[in-house]
């Protein structure tokens, strides 16, 4: 379970004292006081000197320094009722601040409840919530404290932006994400983001705002990815990286990892071109800070190999993969090594080096368990080699073994099984076994429909399924899959993504086949508009969409003539 975004705020929260925290809650009050004044009208309170203090610390009355120094004993004046209450509160606050464990913090907090009003317990509630989150405690328990903190802190009738409120909203959003309450999470995080934006506009300290804003952007990326909104998630992930670049040293290891994470996000939507510079930057940082033989550099090179494969620069891909495998082997990272070797085999296939690919896969399969997921991947790649060699009988045998393995893993690894069925279906397409390909795509789609985070994959599979049905003449059956794919992929990648354009082009072809030229023309017009934007008006596919549109208009003209003849 991942909630690192909230956890990363806690050390920052611990560094704040009451003066800064109080001013964050209400920027127009304590922050405007002179530096030598006290927010509480008594000479007997002073700011706590502990770095992680939340409250003010009571100090004992001191004898007047101008009095006779020969006086050995001086009777202290009796405390008033008000002073005793202040001292009691100060002692309770100090006990809370000095607590190290969750149990100690909760015990101190319960003691404070009888002495403080609810509105004064907000910061302490927030700190306990963050501590519980850091230690991976029950999410519902975290929400109890976080919700209580929000009710106490979010009471400004003037709606002034407050950093502690934003921190609380971020925590609640993060916990809701872990509970898979994605819509609720998004609402809290969006509000936190708005508040932080207002604080920035008001000139609030960037040093205070940035750690929280980074956590919010990172969590928004996680939530939107989980909801299948990959393009929006990328925007938040880019923003989180930009903030991190302002917070960290230029060549920090953490910055290298953040660049690689963004590259991986681009790879997930098959945008290899934009992934490349971020992966390269992560690699350069890790090489400089950790050396060529570090695990981080090995992971960077492995990803770089995948990116080069996506860009069809297969020789470069294989070179990076080989460098990665050497380091992974030296570090004994066998699981990562096996995955990298399968990727190497696929690169060898792309280069037409089939014998090398088979040799690589035979070596890998010896290190896999009988019904393991990775064994299924090996047999899928083996089937790919054999299909490329036109050894279809042997290829189908390997693919059937792979299907059998993933059939057993549908419940435990539905996303992996869906991905395997989709990949295997493409191999059956190359063998012109369209019925099997369609059957596998339907199995894949049934799994993906239950996984909101795989919405982009669901759209892609639905689009391929519609296209195959169209190809074999099942036009009426194809249309709902194509329409669903268009809607799903627009949500994931935006309305101008080239993939959406191809779907509308296929929808136009389907309507034209059904002798509905007006509907076809509408679809072709949308497809042309998208492709002109995403690919450029001179791209071959954009030109084809234009030709298809002219065909639809031609068909509409013929239909008009036929209708006139019929009416006469």
TrEMBL record:
The keyword Plastid does not apply. PROSITE patterns: TPR (PS50005). The keyword Disulfide bond does not apply. Keywords: TPR repeat. TPR repeats lie at residues 418-451. This is Protein KINESIN LIGHT CHAIN-RELATED 1 isoform X3. The lineage of its organism: Eukaryota, Viridiplantae, Streptophyta, Embryophyta, Tracheophyta.
């Amino acid at each position: 379970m991942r909630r690192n975004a909230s956890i990363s705020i806690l050390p920052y929260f611990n560094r704040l004292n009451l003066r800064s925290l109080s001013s964050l809650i209400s920027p127009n009050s304590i922050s405007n006081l002179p530096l030598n004044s006290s927010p509480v009208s008594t000479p007997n309170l002073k700011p706590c000197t502990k770095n992680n203090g939340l409250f003010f610390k009571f100090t004992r009355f001191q004898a007047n320094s101008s009095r006779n120094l020969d006086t050995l004993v001086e009777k202290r004046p009796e405390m008033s009722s008000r002073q005793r209450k202040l001292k009691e509160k100060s002692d309770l606050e100090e006990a809370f601040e000095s607590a190290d464990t969750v149990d100690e913090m909760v015990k101190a907090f319960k003691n404070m409840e009888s002495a403080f009003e609810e509105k004064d317990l907000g910061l302490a509630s927030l700190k306990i919530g963050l501590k519980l989150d850091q230690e991976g405690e029950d999410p519902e328990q975290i929400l109890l404290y976080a919700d209580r903190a929000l009710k106490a802190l979010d009471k400004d009738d003037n709606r002034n932006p407050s950093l502690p409120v934003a921190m609380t909203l971020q925590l609640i959003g993060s916990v809701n994400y872990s509970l898979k309450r994605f819509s609720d999470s998004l609402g809290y995080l969006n509000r936190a983001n708005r508040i932080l934006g207002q604080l920035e506009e008001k000139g609030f300290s960037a040093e205070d705002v940035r750690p929280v804003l980074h956590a919010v952007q990172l969590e928004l990326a996680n939530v939107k990815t989980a909801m299948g909104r990959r393009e929006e998630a990328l925007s938040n992930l880019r923003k989180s990286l930009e903030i991190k670049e302002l917070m960290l040293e230029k060549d920090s290891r953490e910055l290298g990892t953040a660049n690689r994470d963004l590259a991986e996000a681009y790879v997930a939507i098959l945008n290899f071109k934009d992934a490349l510079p971020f992966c390269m930057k992560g690699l350069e940082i890790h090489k400089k800070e950790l050396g060529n033989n570090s695990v981080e550099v090995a992971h960077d090179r492995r990803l770089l190999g995948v990116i080069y494969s996506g860009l069809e620069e297969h020789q470069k891909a294989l070179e990076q993969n080989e460098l990665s495998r050497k380091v992974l082997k030296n570090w004994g990272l066998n699981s990562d090594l096996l995955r990298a070797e399968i990727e190497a085999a696929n690169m060898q296939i792309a280069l037409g080096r089939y014998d090398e690919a088979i040799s690589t896969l035979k070596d890998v399969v010896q290190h896999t368990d009988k019904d393991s997921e990775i064994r299924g991947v090996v047999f899928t790649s083996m089937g790919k080699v054999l299909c490329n060699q036109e050894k279809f009988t042997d290829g189908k045998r390997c693919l059937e073994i792979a299907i059998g393995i993933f059939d057993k893993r549908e419940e435990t690894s539905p996303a992996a099984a869906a991905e395997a069925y989709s990949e295997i279906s493409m191999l059956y397409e190359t063998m012109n076994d369209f019925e099997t390909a369609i059957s596998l795509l339907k199995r894949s789609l049934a799994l993906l429909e239950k996984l909101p985070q795989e919405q982009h994959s669901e759209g892609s599979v639905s689009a391929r399924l519609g296209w195959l049905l169209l190809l074999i003449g099942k036009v009426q059956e194809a249309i709902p899959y194509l329409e669903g794919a268009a809607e799903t992929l627009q949500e994931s990648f935006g309305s101008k993504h080239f993939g959406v354009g191809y779907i509308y082009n296929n929808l136009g072809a389907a309507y034209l086949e059904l002798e509905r030229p007006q509907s076809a023309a509408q679809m072709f017009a949308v497809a042309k508009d998208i492709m002109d934007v995403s690919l450029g008006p001179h791209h071959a596919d954009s030109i084809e969409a234009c030709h298809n549109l002219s065909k639809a208009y031609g068909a509409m003209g013929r239909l008009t003539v036929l209708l006139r003849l019929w009416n006469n």
